[in-house]
Amino acid sequence: MSRVRWHELTHAYGSAQDVPGRLSRVAWGDARTSADALSDLALWLGEVAVFDATVAAVPFLWDLAVTDSVTSRPGVIELLRAVLDHGNPPRIDVQYAAHQAVLGGRTTVDALARDEDPAVRVAARDVAAAIGSHACETCRP
Asked: Where are the alpha helices (DSSP H) in the chain?
């Protein structure tokens, strides 16, 4: 994460400089801390629209989704699905990059669909279906 220039990126409410801290809290926090940080990330990166910080965060979200010690893995997977559901019409290039970053995790989703945690399996199946049916105007060839 230290190689990303987060302070130069934006999310729904401005500078993305706080995104690495929230990602770390999702990764290392207890259940409540992780859930609170994930809630912030959802608001910032995917519930309203997607942003350049979303594009940078998606690979880290995929990493969190497959890390057994992360307590909020189903929520992380749901956030990845939300990224596919939202766009950024003024920034079609950002929307395309964010969607492609999620679509690129197809093999990861396949592994998550066989996870021991039933909540992870359900979330993985939902995002797999979203990936399989994704056909937004921006991503069509």
From this structure: 19-28, 31-45, 52-65, 73-85, 92-103, 106-112, 118-133
